Amino acid sequence: MRPPTDDFQFIAGNLSLDFVNTIGDRFGTAREYLTSSAELTRGARLAGILPPNGRLTLSPRRLSDVRTARESLYRLFRPLARGGDPSRRGLSQLNTRLESVSGARRLGLRKGIVRWEWLSPARDARSLLAQVYASAAELLVSEHVAAVRQCEGERCGWLFVDRSRSGHRRWCSMADCGNREKARRHLARLRRSAR
Ligand SMILES: [Zn+2]
After folding, report:
1. Among candidates 33, 73, 36, 32, which has minimal Cα distance to 56?
2. How far, in Å, is the centroid of ligand 1 from the Cα of 157?
3. Residue 120, phi-psi category: left (phi > 0), alpha (psi -120 to 50), beta (remainder)
């Protein structure tokens, strides 16, 4: 059976971290999910940041830029998951990226409520990345930043915001890394008792 983390999952509680988690088993065989425009389109639709009829058509180079942006966000958030501070370099990179997509949104008014509207979601990834970067920036300045964690699964590497009441969430998903760890411990116990 394919593990649940073998495909796009939205377990992070934050869009930018879900975007960071578009690579499976980061510390293992590293399965890339953003392999084509079609896959990026599918993931963005599932994430709800691309309308069902939206279709991204990126050149291989642009697609590679998207993956580079993801890795840059991973490096920015990783120290936070270990109780550290983000690097100034990482913040400066995010500032540059935010500037590069600043034209992709504007304030709109609908039914008396002001909200962000994202321009031209179709084709290129600018609007999509604008939403991802905005979500990263909002997380960084929010109180939830202290709850950024990295899954303790040996190979996983996924990041998430721990919104559990206990504040002790350890796994990206109980159905995946949580279960694997349980099985590993069970096996270790069996081996011990066999000795
Ligand atoms: Zn995990």
Report:
1. 36
2. 6
3. left
State the distance from the centre of ligand 1 to the C-alpha of 86, rounded, in angstroms.
Answer: 22
Ligand 1 center–CA 19 separation, angstroms: 15
Q: What is the CATH classification number for the domain harbouring 84?
A: 1.10.3300.10
The Cα 145–Cα 107 span in angstroms is 26
H/E element, 109: strand 105-110
Mean pLDDT computed over every residue of the chain: 91
Average pLDDT over every residue of 169-187: 87
Q: What six digits make up the tokens of 46?
A: 């599932």
Least Cα distance to 5 among 28, 31, 29, 27 occurs for 31
Of 176, 168, 111, 101, give the one whose Cα is nearest residue 136: 101
CB of 75 within 8 A of CB of 82? Answer: no
Mean pLDDT across 135-159:
96
Residue 3 has pLDDT above 80, yes or no: no
Tokens describing residue 30: 């590293």
Domain that holds residue 124: 4-194
Model pLDDT, residue 178: 87
Q: What's the domain count of the chain?
A: 1
Distance 110 CA to ligand 1 centre (A): 39
| Per-residue pLDDT at 20 | 98
- The pLDDT tens digits for 18-41 are 999 999 999 999 999 999 999 999
